[in-house]
Amino acid sequence: MPPPTRLLQPFKVPIKLLMGPGPSNMREGVRAALNAPLLGHLHTEFTDIMDDVKSGLQYLFQTNNSLTFAVSGTGHAGMECALMNLLERDETLLVVQNGIWGLRVADLAKRLDLQVKVLNAEVGKAASLEEFSQAIDDFKPKVAFVCHGESSTGVMHPLDGFGDVCHKNGTLLLVDTVASIGGAPFHADKLGVDCVYAATQKVLNAPPGLSPISFSEMALNKIKQRKTRVPSFYFDALELGNYWGCFDEPRRYHHTGIISLVYALREALVGIAQEGLNECVARHQQNAKILYSALDEVGLKPFVEDPALRLPCLTTIAVPPNIQPKEVIDHLMAQKIEVSGGLGPTFGKVWRIGTFGINSDRDKILEVILALDEAIKSASGLAD
Ligand code: PMP
Questions:
Q1: Are residues 93 and 194 in contact, defined by beta-carbon separation less than 8 angstroms?
Q2: For a tag on the chain, would you pick the N or C end, based on fewer CB atoms within 10 A?
Q3: CA 78 to mean position of chain CA atoms
Q4: 75: Cβ below 6 Å to ligand 1?
Q5: pLDDT tens across 289-318, in order?
Q6: What DSSP assignment string belongs to 85-123?
Q7: pLDDT tens across 11-46, in order?
Q8: Residue 199, pLDDT above cutoff 80
Q9: Residue of minimum CA distance from atom 12 in ligand 1
């Protein structure tokens, strides 16, 4: 068999401005870190780097949890790892569902033979503390799931008081921060979050492939008291916690760590530490305001009506009547600008603009809105 001819052609990747829901553009320092020489996955120099990553993640999540590390895999890996470890077959999971990620978690949970109860919130809105509290009373779940940054709708779900409600009922609070961490206020310990996971390819401006995760003491105790083994070896949090040096015991080989991605994550966390987490979040909030006023100037509206519920690092924009959203997206893509359409319940209704990390930048935002406005005018036949 001859070698595939395309493989022998020069390898060319275009440079695009990635202002969709992720991946975002990579930061220069992160790219440089990817080029560092490989080390073995148990070499002291590498385990020292893992330790740096662990403390950087504790800072990012604002937690003292010792069981804090990065799962090898994208955001879905963190999601599966959380569910597989925190719950056993037939236990009840409450899912707050206001977009695609609640649906996805419910799907994964059913595959694990969990009992899934759903608290539905309207698309573009969030569940109130009262509704959440009632659902916890009604279903007495072992774990309750909330997506902090619903990237399909652009909603930032409030979490104040959710941890207390959970803990009064012996429920663990599980939160998805894939699309929000670093770009919206989040304090795992203050909020009483028992398990939180994220991903590297959004605010962190690193390549996809690692899913930061953290388990509270209560979550760790529940895992230790399991009657059945975690159904996945790869996602077993106690095994992973050992490899990441989270317990006072010698590290064992579990799997070959994704060496270069761990370097990249370390460098991404250095960026957050240098800017300061609060400053980083504040920058996302300020630039979101610039985005809203730019939208207003061109006659577009954010899809999430309540400003308090808008995710600062990902904005959904309502598609005006008689416009084909895909036509506009294609027009922008021809200029190497990525803006995305809706997903799940927002499909065909919104555009999604991610302003993650280095892309939370005034000039980039104004460039994208200008291009979006021109693309809409061209799609509606109003172009000069
Ligand atoms: N949760 C949220 C909120 C997300 O936005 C995403 C990805 N867009 C995921 C989970 C899944 O992450 P991944 O695609 O990295 O597996």
A1: no
A2: N
A3: 10
A4: yes
A5: 999 999 999 999 999 999 999 999 999 999
A6: HH--TT-EEEEEESSHHHHHHHHHHHHTT-EEEEEE--T
A7: 999 999 999 999 999 999 999 999 999 999 999 999
A8: yes
A9: 75
Q: What is the pLDDT of residue 381?
A: 75
DSSP 211-256: EEEEE-HHHHHHHHT-SS--S-STT-HHHHHHHTT-SSS-----S-
CA of 179 to the centre of ligand 1 (A): 7
Nearest atom (ligand 1) to Cα of 151: 5
Tokens representing residue 85 in the block: 């470890």
Answer for the pair 101, 151: CB distance below 8 angstroms, yes or no.
Answer: yes
Residue nearest to atom 13 of ligand 1 (CA): 75
- pLDDT recorded at residue 366: 98
Which residue has tokens 């302003």?
355
This complex has an ipTM of 0.99
Q: Is the CB of 271 under 6 A from ligand 1?
A: no
For residue 199, the ligand 1 atom closest to its alpha carbon is 15
Residue 297 Cα to ligand 1 middle (Å): 31
Mutate-to-test residue for ligand 1 from 148, 178, 346, highest number of ligand atoms within 8 A of CB: 178
Q: Which domains does the chain have, with CATH numbers?
A: 17-22+276-379 (3.90.1150.10), 29-273 (3.40.640.10)
Angle at 110 between CA 107 and CA 116, to 5 degrees: 95
Mutate to test the pocket of ligand 1, among 76, 147, 211 (most ligand atoms within 8 A of CB): 76
339 vs 316: CA distance, rounded Å: 10
Q: Which residue has the tokens 């779900």?
A: 157
352 labeled part of a ligand binding site: yes
Ligand 1 atom index nearest CA of 22? 8
